[in-house]
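ARCHIVE CARD
Drawer: 12
Card no.: 0347
Subject: one protein chain, sequence and derived structure
Cross-reference: see card 0346
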Amino acid sequence: MRTQRKYRAAPRKEVGKELAKLTLDSFSSLDSLQKLAKYGQIIEASSSGILIKFKRDDFVSKELRSNLSLDQLVGQNIFFNIHEMNLEITGKVARTKFLGKEGFVVAVDYTADAPEYWRECLMDLLPTG
């Protein structure tokens, strides 16, 4: 005779690698050396680029904080410093997206001089797109 279990087994969670939280110390224009944002969080990385999430308050310029669009950044050459890795990477803003109260997402394509080794490290630490 088979006995019924009184409690249902909890679904198993897939045990995977713990993803790192990487933040930016700065996000600046490579052309004018103007600091655009004082903080940001990297949310996704691939071999060709990176997605960075910014809150409205992260931007230094009042103009950037007050707009619903960051289209003026598209095409700009930028550089940023990843705090946890003490790494500076250069790129070009490919696109931006407004997320409402959450802020903005900025997609950056790496420049040719962005080290391949560090791109691979970022892909290992973060979700890939």
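Annotation on reverse: The helical segments are 62-66, 116-125. The CA atoms of residues 45 and 121 lie 10 Å apart.
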